[in-house]
Design brief:
The protein is mainly alpha-helical. It has six helices and two strands, in the order ααααββαα. The chain has a two-stranded antiparallel ribbon. Bound molecules: zinc ion. Zinc ion binds next to helix 2 and helix 4.
Length: 177
């Protein structure tokens, strides 16, 4: 896995993305409750592929896994299906925001795991693909920055009418003149 702190940071970014997308879908709910819950489940989803493979219900010392690392819980298609289905269900069942947030977090986790050599089983559980960019735990700042850049972009669009984007565009235009 990418290091735990990296999954924590990208998990919060995933939460922000989920919350913003729930808002943009027009179902933030009273006091932004659904957006807020999507933020929390987004964060928990960000760590989920790793903690779901530990048998935390077993007592005793050590960390037991009930399945090999980075197999079923890191399966790309399953997470993407969950993402798409929960998003489509949002207008009908607002509580789906929780599932949606969880799925955004899970996919964020896979993206964070993708660059290091062990890779991620996007298509099939027993076939992992790796971008082979760096060893686990290295360059986590790149992953984290990319996640927050994505989060800032989505939040900007959902809540601030792309103020930041227009600002950057304006600056670029001035600079190109
Ligand atoms: Zn992982």
């Amino acid at each position: 896995m990418a290091a735990k702190p990296a999954h924590d940071h990208t998990g919060w970014a995933a939460g922000v993305i989920a919350a913003a997308m729930v808002s943009q879908a027009g179902i933030a709910g009273p006091f932004y409750i659904w957006s807020f819950l999507a933020l929390l489940t987004g964060y928990s989803g960000g760590g989920a592929p790793d903690w779901m493979e530990l048998s935390w219900w077993r007592s005793g010392s050590g960390r037991y896994s009930w399945i090999p690392h980075r197999t079923l819980t890191h399966w790309g298609i399953a997470w993407i299906a969950l993402l798409v289905l929960s998003y489509k269900a949002l207008p009908y069942f607002h509580w789906m925001a929780l599932v949606f947030g969880f799925a955004v977090g899970g996919i964020m986790h896979l993206l964070a795991d993708w660059p290091n050599p062990l890779g991620v089983p996007w298509l099939w559980i027993s076939w992992r693909h790796s971008l082979n960019l760096w060893k686990s735990g290295r360059c986590d700042w790149i992953v984290t920055s990319a996640a927050w850049l994505a989060a800032a972009t989505v939040a900007d669009r959902a809540w601030f009418h792309s103020v930041a984007l227009h600002y950057v565009e304006g600056l670029t235009r001035v600079a190109m003149r």
